[in-house]
Write a structure and sequence with these properties.
Mean pLDDT: 87
CATH class of the domain at 236-431: Alpha Beta
CATH architecture of the domain at 236-431: 3-Layer(aba) Sandwich
CATH superfamily of the domain at 236-431: P-loop containing nucleotide triphosphate hydrolases
CATH topology of the domain at 236-431: Rossmann fold
Strand content: 15-25%
Oligomer: single chain
Largest sheet: 7 strands, parallel
Strand order of the largest sheet: 12-13-11-14-15-10-16
Number of helices: 25
Bound molecules: adenosine-5'-diphosphate, magnesium ion
Length: about 675
């Protein structure tokens, strides 16, 4: 049960002034349903406005607020905007431009001679100062000089969002302090409520931002520590086979394992043989042979008389894994089943899993539904892209007599610190060596202005009988309105190559998405326009070209992973990174790094460093962030301290009963680690 003191934070947003059902639905699009979600919806930047007396004090490109007098008006004409001509207090002219269907109405509100305060960005147009769509107000109206900019959605303005956050801030209760007083003092951190108020109002509130990041990390590390303790109390089961099946699978392979694969396998088998339940990451670039290592670990598990399960992110990938495993286990006693939620023979399959007629069950999250009972689940392998956290780990611990061993496969090279933060743990096996015969992907950076040339190049590629991926960033409502960039691009490419272009993006129905990918995989479609990595997580050897649009908006590790999708067919492969006209110094440097090296780890580390030096508010990674308040750079900086702190706290007060323990419980609930708190009772 959640402590009562948190009730105001977990109340629905509809209790706030202004928030009715319509607004609530808009907020929900941003993942905001409760007061707490609004508080955790941090600004991505701040808008600064200079209060200027004279136009002469303002530099072009700067946002400013000026007192002016209207001296003339020109209605909109064709593509020319409606204009209000004004002068500042010195008589210097400034033109206010209004575009679109409302232009004349907006400009027409103010007659000649009216005195106004106008706020907007001053730019030079044909050599003369102008403001496009300025805010207008009476001359004496107060103008904020610093305003937060929160991520927005259609139908929710910046000012409105700031007001809503303000309402939410008024409801923050006094909470007990969970950070050790000495630590707080040393860092000069404000208390939780103050920190929240500052991060929403003050661009320079680094201490406040750090404190909140630390809170989030501490909650995560406490939760992991509790889960680990519970697993230890329940002793894992050592898995030791006699080597028969493993040997049979290995001798039938048409190649030998790389040294990195041998090393990873030995590390995993060693963990499996131990008493404690394993939690290990298996990291390696796409194509480095993770699946094979995992398959051998599963073979060893079956050899020891237990079952294994492999969790895939999509049905298509589940079926692909099933086919791979069946081929590998051919001629051995290992029986593979696949459960994705829509099999006809489901009752039969479930009985086989319960009775041990199936040794390895592959599937989507359906394989962990309550209705699926394992006879003896010894090892769970989790393929990349899955949200794996405390709650999942606890769920697995309930799925078996003893907590099963867990192996998480990931192609995203996660630096040690981030692995610790996300998985509460740093046992990592790395496949840092590619199977022989892979050629590095020829990566080039091209300005978006040369789009026509790029399309022509793709055309030549298709004419040679190859296939291509075209990746677009997912929709950013703030800047792009409602049309998904991938949708627009697919339309354009379809006009060019009718019937040969498929589209997949995150907001399509899963079945539709998989059908589109199937068509690409079978070669019926020749170009696949896609948003993120999830959608291109399919092995298509004939696809040897990838175009990534607005590459500067992707994380480097993500781009590296994306390009790993091409070049699996043995021949040369190319990745074209299209960048906007002004990607910025850091973006350019980051992309150049990608072009220069093929080492996923070097890329991830350097990316973190580059972002660390140049990190502005709001340069979070694209894709689903692991944390809501802590940026990667903050994780890097604070995770060690949070981990040590959590460990110490649990050592001293295992039941979290003392005063600081009570506060820590509040913290755990605040970050929705309820499952971890429940271990306190069961443990
Ligand atoms: P990952 O899961 O890391 O993306 P996969 O396990 O899918 O990589 O391996 C990619 C391809 O390389 C597969 O076709 C696999 O059979 C092959 N492969 C794996 N290990 C080796 C090896 N040691 N030598 C040659 N080919 C290998
Ligand atoms: Mg794979």
């Amino acid at each position: 049960m959640r402590p009562e003191v948190l009730n105001p934070l977990f109340a629905p947003v509809t209790i706030l002034p202004e928030v009715g059902p319509v607004l609530a639905r808009r907020l929900e699009r941003l993942g905001i349903t409760r007061v707490r979600d609004l508080l955790f919806h941090l600004p991505t930047g701040f808008l600064r406005t200079r209060l200027a007396d004279r136009l002469a004090d303002v530099t072009p490109g700067e946002r400013a607020s000026l007192a002016v007098t209207v001296v003339g008006r020109t209605p909109a004409q064709g593509r020319a905007p409606a204009r209000l001509e004004v002068v500042d207090t010195q008589g210097q002219p400034l033109s206010l431009a209004f575009f679109g269907p409302q232009a004349d109405r907006l400009a027409g509100r103010h007659g000649v001679g009216t005195r106004l305060r106008v706020t907007g960005t001053v730019e030079l147009f044909q050599g003369r100062p102008r403001m496009v769509h300025p805010d207008t107000a009476p001359p004496q109206a107060p103008v904020p000089t610093v305003e937060p900019v929160h991520p927005l959605t259609e139908g929710l303005s910046r000012r409105q969002m700031a007001r809503l956050v303000g309402h939410a801030l008024e409801r923050v209760p006094r909470l007990p302090e969970w950070i050790e007083p000495a630590q707080r003092q040393r860092q000069g951190w404000p208390d939780f409520a103050q920190a929240l108020r500052r991060v929403h109002a003050d661009p320079d509130a680094q201490a406040a931002r750090d404190r909140l990041a630390y809170d989030e990390l501490l909650a995560g590390q406490l939760a992991w520590a509790l889960v680990r303790r519970q697993a230890r109390q329940r002793r894992g089961r050592p898995i030791v086979g006699d080597g028969r099946i493993l040997a049979a699978v290995r001798t039938r392979l048409p190649f030998t394992l790389t040294a990195a694969q041998e090393r990873a396998l030995a590390e995993i088998l060693n963990d499996l043989a131990g008493e404690a339940a394993m939690l290990r990451l298996l990291q390696g670039d796409v194509g480095s042979g993770k699946t094979l290592v995992a398959a051998l670990a599963m073979a060893a598990t079956v050899e020891a008389g237990a079952q294994a399960a492999l969790l895939a992110p999509t049905e298509l990938l589940a079926r692909q894994h099933r086919a791979t495993l069946e081929a590998l286990f051919q001629g051995t006693p290992v029986r593979v089943g696949c459960l994705t939620g829509r099999e006809a023979g489901r009752p039969f399959l479930l009985r086989a899993v319960a009775e041990g007629g199936i040794d390895v069950l592959v599937g989507t999250h359906a394989i962990f539904q309550d209705s699926v009972v394992y006879r003896d689940l010894g090892l769970v392998v989790i393929d990349e892209q899955h949200r794996f956290g405390v709650a999942q780990r606890l769920m697995l611990q309930r799925k078996a007599w003893v907590p099963p061993h867990v192996l998480v496969m990931t192609a995203t090279p996660i630096p040690r610190t981030l692995a610790l933060a996300r998985f509460g743990h740093t046992a990592v096996s790395v496949l840092d060596e590619k199977p022989p015969g892979r050629t590095p992907v020829d990566t080039r950076i091209i300005a978006l202005g040369r789009l026509e040339e790029v399309v022509a190049g793709v055309g030549r590629h298709l004419a040679r009988g190859h296939q291509a991926y075209w990746v677009c960033p997912a929709l950013d409502r703030e800047t792009e309105g409602l049309a998904e960039p991938a949708v627009r691009r697919a339309e354009m490419l379809r006009a060019r190559w009718p019937g040969r272009v498929e589209l997949v993006h995150g907001r399509m129905a899963a079945a539709q998405r998989e059908a589109a990918m199937d068509r690409f995989r079978r070669g019926e479609a020749r170009v696949l326009v896609a948003t993120t990595v999830i959608e291109v997580g399919v092995d298509v050897p004939a696809a040897s070209l990838m175009v990534v649009e607005q590459a500067e908006r992707f994380g480097l590790a993500q781009l590296h992973q994306l390009r790993g999708r091409v070049g699996r067919g043995g021949g040369p492969a190319t990745c074209l990174l299209l960048v906007g006209d002004h990607p910025g110094e850091i973006a350019r440097e980051r992309l150049a790094l990608l072009r220069a090296t093929d080492d996923g780890f070097a890329i991830a580390e350097a990316d973190l460093r580059l972002r660390g030096t140049g990190e502005l508010l709001g340069t979070r990674q694209a894709g689903e962030p692991a944390f809501r308040l802590a940026s990667d750079v903050q994780v890097h900086r604070w995770i060690g301290a949070a981990e040590a702190d959590a460990r110490l706290l649990i050592e001293r007060d295992g039941g979290l009963d003392g005063p600081r323990g009570e506060a820590a419980r509040v913290l755990l609930h605040l970050f929705e680690k309820d499952a971890a708190v429940r271990t306190l009772r069961s443990g």
